[in-house]
Write a structure and sequence with these properties.
Layout: H1 11-16, H2 30-41, H3 44-58, H4 62-86, H5 92-100, H6 103-138, E1 154-156, E2 162-164, H7 169-184, H8 186-212, H9 235-246, H10 266-295, H11 306-314, H12 317-351, H13 370-386, H14 393-417, H15 432-445, H16 450-474
Antiparallel strand pairs: 1-2
Length: 481
């Protein structure tokens, strides 16, 4: 078994390995974990994706798309909650897969998650840069165009002449600042995240409450616009396509499972954090979608800042400024949670010997995996500054859905192979609900297109080369350490 590519790490060994001088500080309670989840989930989804999905695919029926996406996420979220209490260690889907499908599949999913989180952070950082420029314009300032877009992108200079961008410096800068904060300590990062989540929720609730008074019900008719003759463009197929698009608004909640090793009482706190953040975020998404499509005719919502477009329809200038600042804060929390999760997975893989050992080092005073955090932050900052992120958005979704399917499989597998292991939280009706979760994710994958899969496979091939060149021979499980 030790020489097999599919050698598994027993659950008892994974849990027993937690502790000792290398263990991160246990400083997160259920409130902070729920705030981490909301911090990751409510960001690009509310402030960007709502408008695109309504204008191109769903019309006012965007609310139904959010319900479909939330059902898929709830099924997977139940599985995450069970596994995070069964295996209260960091590493997320990577660790769960190591215990079920073996080392090779664990490596593939770990490598996939590094891509998912990294590209996700870079994409959100680009959006953050655009909102920063918008906020600066409120006070008569702005980011020079050549330093506010990815390298090589066509721009219009301040004097009206055409040119190309050098680098997106604000996007790189926010990644570097958040990385430094995460290196300095999880407790401090969590406190700042709690404050930023409070600001973000205040802004979103203000938009819903104020906007509800200005809704024009005529904008909701027809609620489900007739299909144009093409699959995914309005009608019921449009609602399904819309669910595939807005599903990416939920990708952050899997990052919450990385909090398990730093949770004070993971068996109680993790299910509250995962399912609580998912429930609250879904309610807010549905409320925003309903108000937004009631304020603005849906064909006009295909813009980068649809919520700001909704506020303009109300005509309250101060609320427009508040929403732009709220969006900036909201995107900051997404960057923080995704960078946090990515570094924990990186450090866990290094601890297993699949990556160089130094990446698993925990700082003796700060209690954080500082080397992996710095390396990840530097790499993502370069990507955010130089690469156009548009084409990579679907790639993030494909990687996420791939990970979600494996989580559902892991629950079914461990129920059969380790039936007596204590499970403080249990998914009801196994294997039915995990199987429904798998089917829901496969359904959402249908809307992603062939090119997305080609890119994902190319990334995974690079990972396999690294595994066979380094990870396989240095694996602690394989060497019996």
């Amino acid at each position: 078994m030790g020489h097999s590519l599919f050698a598994r790490k027993p659950v008892a060994d994974i849990v027993a390995a937690e502790g000792g001088p290398r263990e991160p500080a246990k400083c997160l309670g259920p409130f902070s974990i729920t705030a981490m989840g909301i911090g990751a989930i409510i960001g690009a989804g509310i402030f960007v994706l709502t408008g695109t999905a309504a204008a191109l695919y769903t019309g006012p029926a965007l609310t139904l798309s959010f319900v479909l996406a939330a059902i898929a996420c709830a099924l997977v979220g139940l599985c995450y909650a069970e596994l995070s209490t069964l295996l209260p260690v960091q590493g997320s889907t990577y660790t769960y897969t190591y215990a079920t499908l073996g080392e090779l599949v664990a490596w593939i999913i770990g490598w996939d998650l590094i891509l998912e989180y990294g590209v996700g952070v870079a994409a959100v950082a680009s959006g953050w840069s655009a909102y920063l420029d918008s906020v600066l314009h409120l006070v008569g300032l702005g980011v020079p165009p050549q330093f506010g877009a990815p390298t090589g992108q066509a721009i219009m200079r301040a004097d009206g002449s055409a040119g190309v961008a050098i680098a997106n410096l604000p996007a790189a800068a926010i990644v570097i600042v958040i990385t430094a904060l995460l290196v300095l300590g999880t407790r401090e990062s969590a406190r700042l995240n709690n404050v930023m989540v409070a600001v973000k929720l205040t802004v979103v609730l203000a938009f819903v409450v104020v906007g509800a008074a200005y809704i024009n019900p005529a904008n909701w008719h027809p609620y489900i616009p007739p299909n144009t003759g093409h699959f995914g463009h309005f009608g019921w197929s449009g609602i399904l396509r819309g669910a595939s698009v807005v599903f990416f608004a939920y990708i952050g909640f899997d990052a919450v499972s990385n909090c398990a090793q730093e949770a004070r009482r993971p068996q109680r706190d993790m299910p509250i954090g995962i399912l609580g953040s998912l429930s609250l975020s879904t309610l807010l998404y549905i409320a925003v979608a309903a108000v937004l499509t009631g304020l603005v005719p849906y064909p006009k919502l295909n813009v980068a800042d649809p919520v700001v477009e909704g506020v303009r329809a109300i005509g309250w200038g101060w609320l427009s400024a508040l929403v732009e600042i709220g969006a900036l804060v909201g995107l900051t929390t997404v960057i923080l949670v995704l960078l946090y999760g990515q570094s924990r997975i990186f450090a866990t893989m290094a601890g297993d010997g699949l990556l160089p050992r130094m990446f698993s080092a925990v700082h003796p005073r700060l209690g954080t995996p500082w080397i992996s955090q710095i390396v990840i932050g530097a790499g993502v900052a370069v990507v955010a500054a130089t690469m156009p992120i548009d084409a990579l958005g679907r790639l993030v979704g494909a990687g996420t859905l791939f990970a979600f399917i494996l989580v559902c499989i892991a629950v079914i597998y461990l129920r059969r192979t380790e039936p007596d292991t204590p499970r403080p939280f249990q998914v009801p009706h196994v294997p039915l609900l995990p199987l429904l979760g798998i089917l829901a994710c496969l359904g959402l994958l249908l809307g992603l297109g062939v090119y997305t899969w080609v890119r994902l496979v190319a990334w995974l091939m690079v990972g396999l080369v690294i595994y066979f060149a380094y990870g396989r021979s240095h694996s602690r499980l394989r060497r019996g350490k």
